[in-house]
Amino acid sequence: MKLAEIQARFQAGVLGDDERDRAAILGSIKNSPRADKATLFAVYHDAYRLRLAEFLSNDFPALRAYLGDEAFGQLVEDYVLSAPSRQRNARWYGARLPDFMGETAPWREHRNAVDLARFERALSDAFDAADAPALAIDVLQNTSPSDWPRVAFDFHPSFALLDLAKGTAAIHAATLDEDEAPPAPQDQEEAVIFWRDEDQCFFRAVAEDERLALLEARQGKPFEDICALLAFQLNGGDVTARVAGFLAQWFQDGLIAGISFAK
Fold this sequence. Notes:
Number of strands: 5
Structural class: alpha+beta
Strand order of the largest sheet: 2-3-4
Low-confidence stretches: none
Largest sheet: 3 strands, antiparallel
Helix content: 40-55%
């Protein structure tokens, strides 16, 4: 048997739980003076899963605290079996865990847990996002009144907005502080934004009108269009001051990386 075939069998035995794969590799190796071949192979088989579990625990500490060690361990087992590592960098191994939970029984029945995983993943993604300079609000001081309706905004690469089960941010804070997680209804939502300012990641919940303004701004809509949408939502009320307040907060948070003027 060629070395490449032995390596392929060994990998199949380590990655899967199929008895045929395990039998195939055990038939290709020998016992040692100190342990039989099944025990020796189990060292590699189990170590692979333990390392992946360690990576997931580091990436999702609040989820682990929220579920408890037993349930989190079962989640890890389910995920490892369905998603063998395909990346040399273990940093990306847990990227699909929130999607896996949302697609797979019994995890998909627990939205609070799924959205807590999405929350922690968003923080990780914000940390890993590309760098870009955040603009100060002073960049707008020379904008003429006639140009204000056309001002559009580019957001920092780390910025993300997620619609999550209401109370997800509170659950995250409580579990990391080792407090009892507050009750959270799964039929209500909250919008949470995530971003990185220098080397620190931040998040905050936003009200529905700010969420709508952010969605419009992220699509490149200018100031005039953002105001028009919010005015429609408020049955024609004057929202200019409200949107201007949003802009001031976005600049203060470090969310804005560029401006342009719509034609």
